Amino acid sequence: MLNLCIKIESRIMLIEEFSRAPPSIVEEFAEGKFDVRPLEDRYYTKKYNCDSDGGDYTFLVHSNKLCVIKLARTHPILVRNLTIKSVTFQVSDTLNRLDNRVSGKGKRGAQLLTSTSTLCLIYCEEQSEPYVVKTCMTAKLLEVNDTLVSKPELLKADNLNYIAIVSPRMSDHEIQLENLLTEEQYLENLSTRPT
């Protein structure tokens, strides 16, 4: 009789367990089970390069050591809300970053960049001289955002506003990243700048 009661009780527990509705996505969201931070904040470490002319850049460093380069929120183009006329990757008479062709695991064919290499030129309606975007590190150029050529206004968008993806030289990857500023150092640098 005791065995029968135990079997019945365990079956009742199973029925109750399976009859309960699964938690809804709304409930799980309210409990904080989902990471709702922007993609940039979830998968990348932000580093910054501050230029003397205010041409600051954000480097989104992925765990695979690749870096996405974009304009920092304090870049004059974004702060002054300048109208972007065009973006060109033709950085000299003989060098066009759009001609970059990469293949294979070793990224053969990638253009080699130094810390002073020009990635692109950004022309704005409000001024005659272009903004020159520098690489700021020794790296291989893996990809440029060629969409910026036809839609330069994307540089001001919250997504798709990257300029290039680079692979820093692995032999001194850590040293190169140490030369860039962390978020805290960047904010401190901004507070000491003349207005």
The end-to-end span amounts to 86 Å
Tally of alpha and pi helices = 7
What is the CATH topology? OB fold (Dihydrolipoamide Acetyltransferase, E2P)
Q: Strands of the biggest beta sheet: in what spatial order?
A: 1-2-3-9-8-5
CATH architecture: Beta Barrel
Structural class: alpha+beta
Query: Which range best describes the helical content: under 10%, 10-25%, 25-40%, 40-55%, 55-70% or over 70%?
Result: 25-40%
Number of domains: 1
Q: In this structure, how is the largest beta sheet organized?
A: 6 strands, antiparallel
Indicate the proportion of strand residues.
25-35%
CATH class placement: Mainly Beta
Point out poorly predicted stretches: none
Number of E-type strands = 9
Global shape: elongated
The Rg value, from CA coordinates, equals 25 Å
Order of helices and strands: HHHEEEHEEEEEHEHH
Kindly state the mean pLDDT as a whole number?
Answer: 85
CATH superfamily: RNA polymerase II/Efflux pump adaptor protein, barrel-sandwich hybrid domain
Protein name: Actin-binding transcription modulator
GO molecular function, one term: actin monomer binding
